[in-house]
Amino acid sequence: MEVLMEKELTRTDIELCLAFPTSSRRAFSMPEGETAVYFEATDTLEKKWNFRLSRRSVITGDWLQFVRDKGLKVGDKIFMWREEGATGVRYTVRAKRKIFGVWVNVQ
């Protein structure tokens, strides 16, 4: 498992797009001449989300719907990782919220 990001969400992240770490962009193969790569990530409920990662290192696509469905707020955390298996590459996305000092999954 390769952790791609662990980030506390900002207002920009929940209102416009998710800023993605440039250093983690290497986990995605972006064809020459393309401006973005599309990928599918699975959440804690096994729901699949279609995201778009641009050369500018921002995630769009289903991102704002994910934010709305999960009720995410500034200060919540987002985690994303990549796993390689016999069936190919799988991306996973998790959101967490601090409740009484403990980080818990947002369903």
TrEMBL record:
Tell me which InterPro entries the record gives. B3_DNA-bd, DNA-bd_pseudobarrel_sf
Key words, A-Z: DNA-binding, Nucleus, Transcription, Transcription regulation
Name under which the protein is recorded = TF-B3 domain-containing protein
Q: Which CDD domains match?
A: B3_DNA (cd10017)
What Pfam family is a match, any one? B3
Task: Write down the superkingdom of origin.
Answer: Eukaryota
- Quote the subcellular location field of this record: Nucleus
Q: Which residues form the TF-B3 domain?
A: 1-97
